[in-house]
Amino acid sequence: MTTTLLTARPFGRALCAMITPFTEAGALDLDGAQRLADLLVSEGCDGLVLSGTTGESPTTTDAEKSALVRAVREAVGERASIVAGVGTSDTRHTVELALEAEKAGADGLLVVTPYYSRPPQDAVEAHFREIADASALPLMLYDIPGRTGTRIEPETMIRLAAHPRIVAVKDCAYDFLGTQKVLARTELAYYAGCDEHNLALYAVGAAGYVSTVANAVPRRLRSVLDAFDAGDTARAARLQQQATPLIDLMMAAGLPGTVTAKGLLGALGRPAGPVRAPLRPAGRETVDGLLAAYERLVTA
């Protein structure tokens, strides 16, 4: 998809924050990753975001990240964009990962705010500019202060939008007003990073979503955007509401989305495997609840 990216939707509309499948022994499962990627694209995903939060990037090695991009590119070809998560708390390391992702065949880079060290806004801005200057790939900035401890403030985002390779934002800031301020003053393509915001953000001008829940129900989530684009906003709202119970269980029930996504996918017989420590697998009661919500949604 490298040569067909759209200006307003540089990576498509319906993106999945794909899990990283592991074998039962805990090794990277490249065959499983290829099968899952092919399924997600066949079921309506325009793009796949690899090695993000849901992809367990803190516990995968640099070599595993590159191998994952190569394997998924082989599986999906040009049918979908591939955005590689390369963000770390170290600017030099992030640049190295960005260059490796470019070599491996990624279409874009997901770059999270440096975490733990809590840099001030001028340092945050300099960090993103250095990564954007180092690679030829377009960047999706990942604003998730609940995990990183640092916000990309709206004014910082507006300044960064002037960089020709900073083109998109994965928005997990939970600041709907701040997001609209940036949308009104830039051409940045915003992607909802919290599934409960998929329709709301799309309705005020976002490009689409980067969804963890799409690992399980890609076609159902895409149908929300399809209905909205067709002018049937009532249907779009109804479809979003129907997905809410599963979104709630996967994203807001006290467990990381990686854990719930892998629990549900494993129960459905799809590539997933275990999570890596310090995460722990979902318990039987949690998985049963996820399965029940999934069945209600797909039969609605």
Task: Describe the model.
Its main location: cytoplasm. The structure is a single chain. It is globular and about 45 Å long. Helix 8 links the parallel strand 7 and strand 8 (208-211). The protein has twelve helices and eight strands. It is an alpha/beta fold and 300 residues long. Helix 11 (257-267) packs across helix 12 (284-298). The protein has an eight-stranded parallel β-barrel, surrounded by five helices. 51% of the residues are buried. Helices cover 47% and strands 12% of the residues. Residues 1-7 have low confidence and may be disordered.
Could you give a short description of this structure?
Helices cover 47% and strands 12% of the residues. The protein has 300 residues and is an alpha/beta fold. Strands 1-2-3-4-5-6-7-8 form an eight-stranded parallel β-barrel, surrounded by five helices.
